[in-house]
Structure formats: C-alpha cells, structure tokens
Amino acid sequence: MRTHAPVTRRRALTVLAAAAGLPFSGFGRAWASVPELEWRGQALGGRARVLVRHPDQDKVRHVLAHCVGEIARLEAIFSLYRQRSELMRLNATGRLAAPSHDLRLVMAEARRFGTLSDGAFDVTVQPLWRLYARHFAERPDDRAGPGARGVARAAALVDYRAIDLDDGRIALARPGMAVTLNGIAQGYITDRIADLLRHEGLTTVLVDVGEIRALDGPDDGPWRIGLEDPRHPERTVASLPLAGAALATSGGYGMTFDSDGRFHHLFDPATGDSARRCLSASAIAPDAMTADALATALAVTGADRARNILAAFGGSLARLALADGNVAEISR
Amino acid sequence: MAGPERTKPRAPILQTLRQIATLVAVVIVVFAGLFGAPAAAEADGGPIAPTVLNRVFPGATHFGATDGAPPAVPAYRDNDVIGYVFSTHTTVRSVGLSGKTLDIAVGLDMGGTITGAEILEHHEPILAIGVSSDDLARFVGKFEGLNAANPVRVMRRAPKNGTALDAVSGATVSSLLMTHAIFQSAQAVGESRDILAAAASGIDLTGFEEASWEALIADGSLREMRLTLADAARPNADKGGQLYPAGTGPTDPATRFIDLVAGLATPARIGRNLLGARRFNRLAGELAPGDHLLFVAASGLYSFKGTNYVKTGRFDRVQITQDGATIQLGSADHMRVDRLRIAGAPDFREMALFVLPRDRGFDAAQPWRLELMVQGQSEAGPVLATYPLAYALPDRYLTAAAVVPHLVPSSELWRGVWRERMPEVVVLIGLLLILGGIFFLQDLVAQRRTLYKALRYGFLIVTLFWLGWYATAQLTVLNVMTFAGALRTEFRWDFFLLEPLIFILWAFVAVALLFGGRGAFCGWLCPFGALQELLNRIARAFHVPQPRLPFTLHERLWPIKYIVFLGLFAVSLGSIDLAHMGAEVEPFKTAIVMRFMRDWPFLLYVGLLLGAGLFVERAFCRYLCPLGAALAIPARIRMFEWLKRRWQCGRQCNICASRCPVQAIHPNGTINPNECIYCLNCQTLYFDDKTCPPLIERRKRREMRGAAMAEAQADGG
What we know:
The complex is a heterodimer. Chain A is of the alpha+beta class. Chain A has helices spanning 25-31, 57-78, 86-93, 101-116, 126-138, 148-155, 184-199, 288-301, 306-313; strands at residues 13-17, 36-43, 46-53, 95-96, 163-164, 170-172, 204-209, 211-214, 223-228, 236-242, 245-251, 278-285, 317-322, 327-331. In chain A, strands 2-3-7-8-11-12-13-14 form an eight-stranded antiparallel sheet, covered by helices on one side. The termini of chain B are far apart. Chain B contains 30 helices and 17 strands. In chain B, the strands form four sheets. Chain B has a five-stranded antiparallel sheet, with helices on both faces. A five-stranded antiparallel sheet of chain B has the order 8-10-11-15-14. In chain B, strands 9, 12, 13, 16 and 17 form a five-stranded antiparallel sheet that branches. Chain A binds chain B through residues 39, 41, 58-59, 61-70, 72-73, 76-77, 97-98, 100-102, 104-105, 108-109, 111-113, 115-116, 165, 167-169, 199, 286, 314, and chain B through 54, 58-62, 75-80, 82, 238-240, 308, 311-312, 314, 316, 319, 321-326, 328, 330, 371, 373, 375, 378-386, 388, 390.
C-alpha cells in the first residue's frame, strides 16, 4: 500500500502573452493574423497545455490528437499512481528486465544529471519522500520531523550511482532503493511533445507539461513566461522571454509536509533533510528535461555552486529566489 | 410550368392563408431561435458539449462538426478520423422507460470499440425505487472497451465470464434500454461509416499483385528513415558525449549512419512480394488470427538489432509505439530474413521479421512508430537518443466487409417495458374505463350535480397529479409529428409501444375522436388542461374577475392554434429538431414533464399562460394549443353528437353559452365541437330545472298545475 497523500503539482510558471508587446494573450489571439490553437489536458496528474500557431488549423488539431496518445503512452511508463507503470514496477522490485526506451533514456539522463551536479540532483530520493510522507501522515503536528536515525537510514539508500543501466535493463543496486522521476518525467514528456510537433512541421509552439518548452515564438518574438513569487504564489514577480529553449522552476513551497512549510518534497540528498537554501530556482536550458533537473539541482545547492552547475548542464540562465529574500540571477 | 389554364391565379383567400401560414412559420422559427438554445442544450438535437466529447473519446483532441447520416461528430488524430461521437437520441431516437428522451453520448473508434459512454439526458423513473442517477451513469460507464459488433446481453444477474453485463438492480428495463440505445446507435453509425465492417476484418491480407520495391516504397507500404552520422551525433554533441570512443569511428558527417526501412508484412501484397510465395504462405499459415508480421531492414554503420538480444532476449535498440502502447520486441518474436525475393531491393546489412501477437495491443490498421535508439557516451554517463520512423498502413489495404450484427429483438424490449410498467398501465386503463363510463352514462351523471362535480374534479386531480406529474404521460403535438414522420419514413409499432401510457392514451384518444371529438382528451386527460382548470376554479373561489371575451373577438382568436400547429407541422417536415424547439409553444414539458425544474424563460412563459388562465379559463387551450388543433382536425370525422340541446338554445336562452368554460357555444346555441372540451357542464345545465329556462318553465307549470290541483282538492275537500 502506498501512503502518499495525493500530490498536486503547483504551477510556478504561467504563459503571460502569446505575442510580445501585447499585454494579454487573449488580445494577441484576437489580433494575430495566424490563428492560435490551444489544447488543455492532463499529464502525470498535473495540468498540461500546448499552444500552436499555424495557418492550417485542421492539421494542428490532427497533430494535437496524436500528442494526446503520446502523453497517454508515457503516463503508462512514468506514473507514480499507476501500480503497473514501469516506474512502479522498478520501485517494487529494484529491477526491470525490459524497460521501454523512454524509461531507459530518462534514467540515463537522471544519472548523468546526478554526475553533473555532483549529487545535488538525485532521482533516488524516493525513500526520503516515503519516510517524510509516512511520518507526517502519522504525526502531522510534529515540528521536529522524523528522527535523525530514520533520516540517516533513508539517506543511505539515496545514490544515483547505484542505478545500473547496462545491457538495456535497469537495476537499483541496493535493496530498498526507489526512484522518483517527478519533474524530469514531465520534462521528458514536454520534450517528446515538442519534438512530435516539430517533426510534423509545427514550429510556433509552446508546450507546458509542468515545465515549459518553447520552439519558435509568435511573430518572430519570444513567448513571455511569468515566474510566480514563491512567498505569494498568486503574484508574478518576473517575466522571462523564451524561444527555442525550456524553462523550469523548482521550489519546496509547492508541496510541503508540515503546516509551517519547513519540510517539503525537495530534498538535499547530502543531508536527507529538505533543502532550504532557496525558496525556488528557475532555469533556462535547451530542453525541458535538462531545465527541470537544473532547476532542481540549483534549488538544492543555492547560489554558491550555481555558476558551475549551470555551465555543466548547458543551461543559459538561472534565477534563484534565496531564503534570505534576495534574488540571484546568473546567465551564461 | 405548363399551359395557361395552370397559371390561373389561386383563389385570393387561399393565397392569404398561405401568406399567413408562411408568416407564422417565420414567427415560429424566430421563437425557436429565441428559446431554442436552452432547449437544445438540455434535450436532443443540440451539439454534444466539448467536455463530454473529451470524456467519451479521450484519445482525441480535435472534434469536427456533426455531419453524415446518422449524424455523428468525427474525432480526429493526425489527419485521420479515428472515430465518432454521437448521441443515441439523435441517431436512433432512443427513449427510456419513462417514454421520454433517453440520450447517451457514445464514442466509437475505427476498430468498432466503444471508447466511452455518458448519459446526456434521461427521465427514468428511478428515484422512486431507490436507484440513483449515479447508478445509471456507472452502468453506462461499463460500456467502455466493448466492441459494438458484439452486443452484450444484460441480465439481472450476469454470469462472471464477461459475456453479459449486470443490470442496475431495480432498473432492469432501463439498463436494457440503455444497452439497446448504445449498441443500436453504435451499429448505425458504425455501419454507415464502414467501421464495424473494418472491425471484423479490417485489413486485406490476401489481395496480391506483383509489386517492385520501388512501388512498395512509393505507395507507403514500406517507409524509410535515413540518418547521417551528423544527425545521429547531434544529441550527443549537445551533451558533451560521443557516439564512438575518441579517435575511433568514422569522421565524415555525411556518412550513412543508418537507412532504416519498415513496414507491415502481413498483407500478401507486401509480405509475399518481399519474401516470396513459399515463405510468406508458410509464415502466414502459422500466424494466429490478429497477429501481424513486421518487416525491418537496414544498412549503414548502425545495427538496429545490436547484440544484447542474444543474451537478454530483448531488442534494446528498437521499440514500437502506438496510441498509448509501447511494444517491445523480443528474440522470441524475431525471425531472420536472409534474402528478399522482391525486384529492385537494395542490399541490406540486416533484415528481420518480428511477430506482433495480438495480445500486445498492436493494431495494424492504426498508425505506429518504430523508434530507434542510439546510445553514446559522455563523461557523465551514457547519452541516449531516439529517432522515430512513422508508419501508417496505406488505405488500399483497409477493407470493409459486411457484417450484420445481432441486436436484442425490439419486441423483447417493449414487452419488457410493458411488464415493468404494468401497475401504471393497469391504473391508466382503470381511469379510462371510468372516463368511458362517465361518457356512456353522461345523462345519469349530468342529472346529479354533486356526483358530477365530484367525478369531474376528482378526475382532473388524478389527471394532473398522477397522470401528469407522477407518470409524466402528457400527450404532446410532438407525438403527432413523430407519428406523421414515421408514416413518411419507416413506421414501426414497436417504437410507439415503448411508451405504454402514451400508447394507451393515444389509442383511447383515437377512438374518442371518432366517437365524440377532441374534448375527451382536452377536457379530461390533458394534465396541463387540468392544471389550468383547477387553478381557475381556485381563482374563482377568490372572486378573481372572469371577463368574457366578445364572441366575435373570441372566434377570431381560435384560428391561432391551427396556424401554430400547421406551422409546426410544416417545420417538422424540414427539420424535426427545429420542430422540437418550436413545440416549446406547448408549456407541457416545463409544467408537467419537468415539473417546473427548468430555466426561468420557460417558467416565465408558463407563468404567463397560467396567469392568463386565472382570468380567462383555459386561455392556452382556446387560442394557442397546437395539440388541440391537431386533434380538432381529424375530429371532423366524428360519428355522433352526444351533447343534448333544446330548440330554445340560443334563441331564447344563452345560459349554457355564457357558462361554457371555453366559450365553445355559439350565440346561436350550437356547440362548436372543434372547441368543446366535453366537460359536460352544459349537460348538467340541460338537466337542471332550476337553471335551464325551458325546464324552469315546465317545472313552474307543473308546480302551478300541482298547486292548482291541490287547491282544487282543497276546495273540493
């Protein structure tokens, strides 16, 4: 039995305007000469959205229908809520003899991101997640969190290097290890959908499956993406232009275990505790999976190693909302 | 047009009438436009809401406009229609146990599989028996995944082997009707669009003609994907990785990395041309029905097979993806192909056939992708990338064989409905016997004023509360139009038999029309009529003034209802849906069938009519009711005049005329049978020797005679 409370992924990013210079996307749509088509749906328990501008609306609709089938296929692989998903089968037994290409690819990238961030990004933190979720499910008012011994035991199972990907199978080296792809799976789906659209010749595209990937922006300008204030999520604090790249945001505030928000789902793999150096971290990278892992790694490390990690991941911009209220912006 | 005698101008009166009719038709259309939108949204004929479309056909994002016959909404993916969504009421006019609209939205994919079903509208009398709407919704949800070519049986207790569905307990016939509606409409839509035929056979596996490699490539039977070294190296280069260890491997970026060809080999035109008749026939003979053969060939630097499969039993460089399914290829599915028999084939480095068993979810008629995985190495670990080869079986291989599916015989359906509603049927027949008795013995009843009043108001109360609000058996002009429509197209008794109470009522009304006129229905069996009359009685008790319209005006308002009816009828010949909207002129649906649970414009309309009825009794019946008009026209054939008159009526006395609740008595004393509601009020007066002047006179004479005789006796005594 799983003891998780249902997770609702917060949306830290909003698409502000379809066209630069127009304050509301609605206006942009009404005045734009090229029609814009929007699809909204669900992917991995969160809202998903695709915006496409193309003169041939019928073609766009056909391709979008194709995207829906692809999302359904990938959910059957990555979902943490379907008992028979590949990821759940991997977590249940610690090995998967016949993983799909998709899971292999994401796991390989996860390992690589682990190496690039020197462990700040680690998909094997699922045992910590389980520990904290169980603890706060039983004692919601306990401000101390789970004891140090429990944390140490769970943290000992956290090691991305113990993911074995040889011979086209996947194995977790230590018993009890488990993987969460929450985040980069969304990034992967985002990229797959964007690729699918591009293969079909649709290039003025914005895909938003939790993380945002933009192909060409409308009218030769970029898409504009709003970042929410981690302290006041209803407020937008900054807007970033985005074209030919992906933007992701990670922040512990999105899902907390306790009422104070001290314990949240973004763990520092080194300590086993929730990461508290940043309220949130946003990053721009060439693809959504990378942007997502980069944002997560930065949210864990804080400003100190940000420049190195940004370079190692091939990201172009990082924006950290630090715990002391300051904002650090690093670009490359 | 023909000769001069044909072009003679029409009688001016006819022309005027035609103009009036046209005008009224226009007014009705405008009316329908004003009130039609909410009506369409809640009932049949309206478009299915986008949210419902998405729920019953989750595999599609884009839906086209409703079209075709029977009408359905096409669901699209990737330039292809992948199925249809339709309303059971629009396609097969499905009705529920209540005899009212039963409307279910159904999604049907091109394989004949039902992708989902959701109730749009129902009036099943279920709440009374402890079944909730959710139970029905859950039942309808069970149809997802069933194939329309194989209707399931519905049983009170279905066996657990999956051959039948459990009926909603307490609503067996409703379950049966919903099942019937879903399968019947799915088959109607499926057959009209060659879906069900495709589901049964689907792919032309045997058709053969010689074809060269170029021909198979050209017509899409085989698809290619070409990758140069530069293409394959790009994802790795972006991530600091390399395909080949440093210093080894090719360097020219234009080097052919892989030229991959893939296609379905099960159709003879593809497989037999590729493999030759002997091998193809042997393989085809070994395949289980529904299994498919996949042909893959490649040349270039990169092997799509790799070497791991020898050890692990799995091909880790290729996978098939299709509409939510990821299909892995194993060495058990693999057959080597050493040489091709087809003319013009290039030399390949490696070739393979893969068997795709049916149970892995592969649908050869649907597009699929062969995904090739290429792995490189970076300092931080392996870098993987995939490249898709998209394949869609060309239309020439898709067939449409004729499959006639079997449905539950509809006689079984209506019999079930009658069994289920037998108690109501018995009560209604009892009521009609009482009413027949009242008519048959009308003189006896009319002579007893107290008995008459008790019978009259008792009957109206039963008509309103039981027949109307409980059983919702309100006849409407829609029945007339449906009947006429059925006569013009395909007339089926069983369709009308699905509504037992309505059927019995109409049977009774038909006989009553022949015997007496429309009054038997209008005055006694119409729940809305009863409502108006009872409210007017209450209003009178509170001394609400009852102005009487001057007869000349009254008489000129009568034709309105005929014009309304003719307009509706004319519209129904064109569009039954439009006529349905126009039939909102009748307040029956709002006041009786839906028991006032409706949007405010409808309530306002009913309120106005009932308000008018407080001052002018049955104002709606007199001037507007299209059903009354529809009944009055055939009632011209009536055989008898049962209502008694005296020669003095109209000449010396107008009491009946002034007391007639609907002013159906002309000042000259004749009763207009087209307007008469057969309430028998005039008959009670006829026999009332305290009201009817001739009788008063006779009584007085008798009394005088009596007094005189008594006087004489007294004198004599």
